[in-house]
């Protein structure tokens, strides 16, 4: 804006230069008045009428030049304003056109989810909550657009390796607007440790452990993109620049393709409460939290049902997080799902979301 003002000031200075020069010439050079006197200093004759006439003509020319200059300045100012308005319109149109594919894609995936019953919006994040009830199970879908990488973090229970707390406790302690449980865990000596490879703030908490059998790692990179998979070498995972992440079993979708679910996880348990995280092509996240009475296999959803639902929603990559009594969905300081233990289970890792 400052540069535009300087350009306009220079233009007006150049445009009024000739008029100022003419006025200065008249003041410095005078009007050519000539006086003749005799030796006694008495006035003999003057040419005042001719001088007055000459000055009048010059002033008339100056006035005409001023009118032309003022008219030219007015036209130029109007042209400048019109150009500025046109450029602003072009910029607005370009931004709208650039965002159009994203808007169309978002409408397409949202149409499959239905109508959100709750929306949270800020400069950092947009969260939309949906209810899912295909008939065989009930649950919730949370679609998340991270406008800033800082809008999502992973935390440890009580900020201690080996500690545990509920997702509600973690969300309140950190001031998060939403949260879910993350990876699996193992209990030892009265402590609850995250399962296998776990990364926090870019650091491997217990070193890198090669994924084996059905285990996978899932987390986020510094750009706020979901990353995950099976990694035999630390260098393979390092290339993805994990900022944080946890481990569990199994992978459900890879690049929009259903991954074969091992028979063990199809049946053990058959049905259960579930927590699943996935992403769309535009890096939006979709989280499913399915309710169930317990972990005995008589209620909740099968992994195949969850996999099919995510596939139909258009999700690209999807990872099954810890389920059963660990499944947790907290939004705005309230527990949304119905924990199968009757209350939230303390777990060692949480994915939290911030406004």
UniProtKB/TrEMBL annotation:
Source domain of life: Bacteria
Domain spans labelled Phosphodiester glycosidase: 174-354
UniProt-listed InterPro entries: NAGPA
UniProt-recorded name of the protein: Exopolysaccharide biosynthesis protein
Gene source species: Paenibacillus apis
